Each structure stands twice: as structure tokens, then as C-alpha cells.
Amino acid sequence: MLHYVTTNPGKVREAREYLGDDAVTAFDYDYPEIQSETLAPIAVDGARAAFDHVGEPVIVDDAGLFIDGLDGFPGPYSAFAEDTLGIERVGRLALDAGASRATFRCVIAYCDGEPFSATPDSVDRGRRGDDLAVEERATAATDDTVDATGVPVKLFEGAIPGRIVEPRGTGGFGYDPIFEHDGTTFAEMSIDEKNAISHRGRALAKFAEWFAER
């Protein structure tokens, strides 16, 4: 059984779409989260801490909204910014600064205590230009395998480009109402529509393909 360390049932449902209903279970563990300007080190540290606690295969994810014109803010601090400022204020900061271009990113970290062999290129070469460019930049900035402490962690990153808009829609969670992709905010999409293109879904798709051969 694969333990997804999260208290968000939506994440577990999304993972089961890619891995199967019986393959994933939620695990509630409040691991200490390090501070970093990028997502990967946070996910790596969390996966190691979770595996040490659970003792069985785990996945941990870290995600954030990166606004180009605000130097990537809120990025890894997205949850803190949402709690302290609120999504509407974050959106207003971006729009007032003329900084509408943004990217949702997600890093999934897997750990089972065993080493990993090399895997194929994780970038979907069939994706259209703007999405591909975003993912190529994301992949270039993230090591596929990290084992500096002796506990290997495998990383899978997904990213989706969009822009910041005035809040629209009632679905989703977090920054979904202010993030628009192809003319529709994440909060205006159905769960299936969002999961099919989301940053987390793209990371999960890469992980599921690799995990099937694990």
C-alpha cells in the first residue's frame, strides 16, 4: 500500500485516478516542514521524515503558485500567504503590479527506503508549446533522484501555465478562483476537468507511469 501523506481528501481522490482505488491510502502525519525558496527540498525532506515515521512507501507533495512578476511569490509560501493574506489579496497584489502571468507547480516525492534506477525523460514531448516550456524549466530545476543523506527520494514535477484574474467560480480550493488556464479558472472547472490538466495531475501521471514498473 502506498501512503499519501496528506489530510486533503481531494488529493487522495486525484491520486487514485492515476494509481487505482486500492493502491493509495491517506496518512495523517504532520511532519516538520523546512523553509526553502523552491519546492523540491521541502518535498524531499518531508518524504524522508514521513518514511522514517511510517516505515512503508510514501508520497509527499509540495505545491505552490508562482507569479512571474512578483519574483515567484508566493511560491513555496503559498499556504502561508493564503492563510495570512487571503487569495483575493494575493491576486490584487499581482494585478496591481501588472503581474498576471503565473504557473502552478507541484513536486511529488516518493520514498520507500530503496535505491532507484535511471528513468526516462519525464517531460511530455507531445504537449503544446507553452505548457512544454514551463515543464522543461521545472524539470531542469529539479533533480530526479536525491540521496545525499543515504535515503533515496524520487521526484516528479508537474507545472501548468496560466494567469491571475479576478476571482471566478465556486469549485476547487486554494488559489483556484484566481488562476485561469485557457480562459477558465480552476474554480470554474469540474473536478475531472481540473484533474486532467492540473499541475498535481501531471506530476501524478509521471509518478504512476514510473511506479507501475517499480
UniProtKB/TrEMBL annotation:
The lineage, from the top, is:
Archaea, Methanobacteriati, Methanobacteriota, Stenosarchaea group, Halobacteria
Which SUPFAM superfamilies does the UniProt entry name for this protein? ITPase-like
Q: Which residues cross the membrane?
A: none
Q: Which InterPro entries match?
A: ITPase-like_fam, RdgB/HAM1
The Swiss-Prot or TrEMBL record describes its family as follows:
Belongs to the HAM1 NTPase family.
Organism whose genome encodes this protein? Halocatena salina
Q: Per its record, how is this protein called by name?
A: Non-canonical purine NTP pyrophosphatase
Name a single GO biological process.
nucleoside triphosphate catabolic process
Q: Name one Pfam family in it.
A: Ham1p_like
Q: Which keywords has UniProt assigned to this entry?
A: Hydrolase
Query: Per the record, what is one GO cellular component?
Result: cytoplasm
Gene Ontology MF term list: nucleoside triphosphate diphosphatase activity
